[in-house]
Design a protein that fits this description.
2 helices, alpha+beta, three-stranded antiparallel beta sheet, single chain
């Protein structure tokens, strides 16, 4: 989340979350959504203007291998497959396990891993 007045809920901003009204400070930023569950069966949605970091770490050394910063409206699910392909093709690393958070838990990613011998 970037420090724009559009992200500060204490300021009055007309059309704060209108997708076509970009913050004047950074025209390349996009509107993103964070969904979280503070209690069982209670869902909170938070909108923000900014960017998201997508990265792959080596679990042995805990160092980042690939990092990608994109606009906040880019889906995590769509970034996983190209990043895993790049890891396999560019670095020729033998991937034994893929650990991820719930955002990456989708059928297309789970099916992708065995086909490309990543898991």
């Amino acid at each position: 989340m970037t420090p724009f007045r559009e992200n500060n809920l204490k300021t009055l901003v007309k059309d704060r979350y209108y997708k076509e009204h970009y913050p004047s400070v950074d025209r390349k930023t996009r509107l993103g959504i964070i969904t979280y569950f503070p209690k069982p069966f209670k869902k909170n949605i938070h909108y923000f203007w900014g960017y998201r970091n997508h990265f792959i770490n080596d679990t042995t050394s805990e160092l980042p291998v690939i990092e990608l910063t994109l606009q906040a409206n880019k889906s995590e699910k769509l970034q996983a497959k190209p990043m895993l392909k790049e890891l396999y093709q560019e670095f020729q690393l033998q991937v034994k396990e893929v650990l991820s958070d719930a955002n990456y838990d989708s059928e297309c990613i789970l099916k992708f891993c065995p086909v490309h011998e990543l898991c």
